[in-house]
Structure formats: C-alpha cells, structure tokens
Amino acid sequence: MYCSPSTSYDVGRYAGGEYMFQSDGSDGLAAWTARDRPIRSQDIVVWVNMGMHHLIRAEDLPVMPTIWHSFKLRPHNFFNRDPAIDLPKATGLGVEPRK
C-alpha cells in the first residue's frame, strides 16, 4: 500500500502513469512516492496494490466473465480501550435489563 498527497484530478490519476504502456518510469506511482512529500494535514490518496491467483474453470473459456477483488481498511488499536464500555444504560426503550 502506498500513500501520496492528493493533487489535481489530472495529475497522478493512474498508478502506472498517464500512458502506462509507454511509460519510462518517470510519471508513475514509484516516482511519486519516491519524492517523499509530507502527508500530515493533507488530503491523501491511498494506493492499494492487489495481486490475484485465478484457478481456471471450464466456464472461463474462451473469455473469463468476471473476477472480484476487495479490501477493507480497519483500524488497529485506534483507541487505547473499548469506547463502548462507558456508554450510559439504555432507558425508556421498553426493554427490561436482564437480572
């Protein structure tokens, strides 16, 4: 995963550069992150690099119809304890607490 400062919509739009098949390596994600620009208090772009391993099925031939990828961003130790522990008791909901 890479992180770079957000720029205008036209600059830094494609991770491989504007013309990735004709790129000389000077305008892609590797070049942008090598500049080591500060990201604190900035709008950022997070670049996720995903690989896939596809097991061939008979239904994929001659054209593979689709393949799904996903990722989740979840905090790890964002709080130093569970913030739900200090919630006030629910009242007036018509439900009696267990005894």
Tell me what you see in this structure.
The protein has a two-stranded antiparallel sheet with strand order 1-2. The protein is built from one helix and two strands. The mean pLDDT is 77. The chain has 99 residues and is largely without helices or strands. The chain has one helix at residues 29-34, and strands spanning 2-5, 44-47. The protein is flat and about 70 Å long.
Shape descriptor? flat
Strand content: 5-15%
User: Which class of secondary structure composition applies to the elements?
Assistant: little secondary structure
Distance from first to last alpha carbon:
49 Å
Q: Helix and strand string, N-terminal first?
A: EHE
| Residues in helices, as a percent range | under 10%
Largest sheet: 2 strands, antiparallel
Question: What is the average per-residue confidence, as pLDDT, rounded to a whole number?
Answer: 77
